Amino acid sequence: MPSLPIVLLAVAAACLAVLWWHARVQQNALTEQVETEKRQNLALRKSLELLSEGVVLIGHRKQVLYANPAAAVLLDAEPVPEPTETMFSAFTRHQVLLGLAKRASIEETLRQSLEFGQDDEEPRSVEVTLAPLGGGRRVVILRDIRVGALVDKRRRDFVANASHELKTPIAAILGMLDLVDVVEDDKRGELLERARKNAVSLSNMTDDLLRLARADDPDWSPAPSLLDLDAVLQEVIDNLQERASDKELQLKLTTDPSCAELIADHFSLLTVIQNLVLNAVTYTRQGSVTVRSFAPTQGVVAISVQDTGPGIDPETLPHIFERFFRGDVAHSRASGGTGLGLAIVRNLLRRMGGRISVRSEPGVGSEFIVELPTNPTRSLPAG
Ligand code: ADP
User: Fold this and answer.
1) Is 287 touching ligand 1 by the criterion CB < 6 Å?
2) Per-residue model confidence as pLDDT tens digits over 294-353
3) Homologous superfamily in CATH for domain 54-146
4) I need a labelling partner for 193 at 20 to 30 A (CA). Which of 8, 50, 164, 346 fits?
């Protein structure tokens, strides 16, 4: 028969084992709950990132807890993926919106249409909803209400422009083929050469339309990888050297070793720089085209393409990134231009989180500056 202290000890050990097991079960359940919440949080964050509506969460001290990329675009600010101490009044400079936020009481939901716009764009009507979330927190939802109508109009204009642009070389080719059988033998070669040039225009146009469609496609996204920027710039120079030499233009490259490495989509970056250098070579009659890499600020890599060409007059400058815009239609067509190059450049850069700016002086030359974030997940604010 075991003595009483041994029985008590055994009972105590059994109790401890049960308590330990219970604590383990509870701890596992808690860990699982935390993990589930983390997963749900992430899923919610991802969904908010994909929304075309802007969403800003404001804390009880009016600090910004979260702002999705759409809100950042609409308010011309940086996205806020994690809670910050930045005040809403510092996050956006939109005075009417700030006034609205001030006026709204903590309990009520307020909805109003406001005019938003950046200097180079038409103003946009944005429906703003301010709603309480409890505990003094609020959500601001921003919906671009003109987007639907604008997209329809843009689509119609685009189809009309594209059809017109495709019709021009097709009509020329058909006209020339009709003539081939009726012209004298010595004129035939010249006719076929003109038909070939128009076929090249047609091919350039379809290539650029496909590039533009890809840059616009919401299902496509850039695939960033670690790049040797100097090698990409050298590749562009090599591709266009012959064209520049034919015009006796100097094609120069200067690189900054501090921005030799960049994480970006290789093909998109090549397309962007190649388009800019091709334009510079096309529009410059004499002198040089200089490509230069530099680091303007921490976390940003810039590439400048500078030429000694005719420059762009101030009235034309705001339109050069529009689709199918050509400053000089005849010159652009004759050199194989489609009027889509800069639209493709701007769209690709937006998708890569970058931006482009241009400085130009008629009679002196133009400089296009591309800026890209060194971290592709941190988009630069629109320029
Ligand atoms: P394009 O096929 O006509 O070159 P882009 O979209 O590339 O179309 O450029 C639009 C217009 O911008 C051009 O037609 C031209 O008038 C102007 N442009 C672009 N780059 C330059 C440059 N480096 N120098 C002068 N004008 C330029």
Assistant:
1) no
2) 999 999 999 999 999 999 999 999 999 999 999 888 888 888 889 999 999 999 999 999
3) PAS domain (3.30.450.20)
4) 164
Same fold, 54-146 and 221-373: no
Both structure tokens of 373: 């974030």
The Cβ of residue 13 has, within 10 Å, a number of other Cβ atoms equal to 10
Residue with tokens 């759409």: 70
Ligand 1 centroid–CA 259 distance in Å is 28
pLDDT per residue as tens digits for the range 163-195: 988 998 999 999 998 998 888 888 899 999 999
- Which ligand 1 atom is at minimum distance from the Cα of 208? 2
Q: How far is the CA of 328 from the centre of ligand 1 (A)?
A: 8
What topology is assigned to 221-373 in CATH? Heat Shock Protein 90 (3.30.565)
d(CA 172, CA 178): 10
In contact, 71 and 55? CB cutoff 8 Å: yes
Predicted TM-score (pTM) above 0.70: no
Domain boundaries, the chain: 54-146, 221-373
**Amino acid type, 227:** L
Q: Hey, whose CA ends up nearest to atom 7 of ligand 1? A: 341
Ligand 1 atom nearest to CA at 342: 6
